[in-house]
Specification:
alpha/beta; Rossmann fold; 8-stranded mixed beta sheet; 13 helices; 14 strands; 29% helix; 17% strand; globular
Amino acid sequence: MEKTQRRNTVSDLSRRAFLRRASAATVAPLILPRKLFGATAPSNRITIGMIGMGRQAYHANLPAFLNAPDAQVVAVCDVDSWRCEQGRQKVDQFYGGKGCAVYRDFRELLARPDIDAVMISTPDHWHVPMAMAAAKAGKDIALEKPLTMSIAEGRLLADTVCRYGRVFRTDSEFRSSKANLLAVELVRNGHIGRLHTIRTGTPREHGTVGSPPPMPLPAELDYDAWLGPAPAVPYTMERVHAPRQLAARPGWMRVRDYCDGMILNWGTHLNDIAQWGNNTDRTGPVEVEARGKYPDDGGLWDVLIDFEAEYRYANGVKLVYKMDHAFIRFEGDEGWIEVDKGLKAHPRTILSGQIGTEEITFPLKTEKRDFLDAIKTRGTTLEDAEVGHRTASVCHLAHISIQLGGRKLRWDPDREVFPDDPLANRLLHRPAFRTTDSRNISGT
């Protein structure tokens, strides 16, 4: 693979830290005094059930809903009882009562008729089964990205959400960045001339653990339920998450049975903005060629440690996507715009251009506000299931090319198949879910 030209400068930053640097003007949710909430949600509040209470839910998703004046969290669910208890305490402390219900079985939470919507913050291999169950139960859904573990999963999810008429929000905060939004508006309105190339990058993947031996199960973890549709394998901490803490990055994010690693994890943030700027967020490229490298040690953590992909779209735009550092760059025949620890452009006068009243604009709001607003209007969110599926598909396409030795693949985004390529089409699916009495899943 061609060596990268930039040093990685943000691989240790969280994606939210990247956005804070990129945009200081992200809209914050309103805060209502706790004393105005009772033990149960008032009738005019949207009731929320949290499925998965790991670090992403605890530190980001839960506080956003707690601070929303038109929502109330009424239940938390996790197969790790310690994590579930941390969530319950946070909810009850905020509202000043003891009204938050606790579940280990996500199906019991979904069965409650008084819950309007769910926030699913689980490892990736549980995303689609839980979201589909939520749609069938009549719940609106906010689902952590990446939505899926395969392109076929994504099509099934998007179609199911549509069939049941549910409001859906892909839970990525990147469309809530003022820098990203302005970049997209300038590109979509031709302020850099004709767009011809987009470049995106993810932080690098670091660390290896070899093949850790089996360990005794933590008393608080229902491991069989955690595995759910994934293969049955012995427990080791590095496969799941560190017990009784909500800070460290969990090991499952580097195990392909549960997650595809940076190529999907950060990629679905950055390539969503790429697709948005290219006005292709409900379709996709027509060609992809990618190369990548997996760890040499054959150990537990087996996601890609390097990759580079090149795509071609039907409109002639080229997308170059690689593991480097987190950035998004749009290049046109009259200049370029880049979001990389801030917004920059050449010529700089591009950034001083005003978006006209007759030009394309988008609302600036947090992903949770977007979700709640759409629930009330029964409208479409800025990043619904179809958009989230198409964004994940861009990343999956590169991973499929890598698994096939880096060969160039033609892609039909309308039929979502590789024309005349049975081997590539087999990789549109993952192995079938195993049969298990799965209950809930521990959060990210």
